[in-house]
């Protein structure tokens, strides 16, 4: 729920968002598979097929100190995604 609240505060529509299991991703192919922690990296590589697998190790907001850990993590993700998009659109 805190992640949804952070997204809404950030101005992202959360309608129809839900957590998906890895089973829902099984057999699908992606251009990029980006994991956000070491555990997810290991699990995603076993289940998902991607042209590129990227591992971004972010601190878990559930255990992160501070008054707005989910907002801070969302801000960090936003910055990383912006850089990722910039780099990947410049190389094409």
TrEMBL record:
Pfam families (UniProt xref): LMWPc
GO biological process per UniProt: response to arsenic-containing substance
Record-annotated membrane-spanning stretches: none
Key words of the record: Arsenical resistance
Native source organism of the sequence: Hahella chejuensis (strain KCTC 2396)
InterPro entries to which the protein is assigned, alphabetical: Ptyr_pPase, Ptyr_pPase_sf
Presence of keyword Protein transport: no
Keyword Nucleus: no
Protein name listed in UniProt: Protein-tyrosine-phosphatase
Domain Phosphotyrosine protein phosphatase I residue range list: 2-84
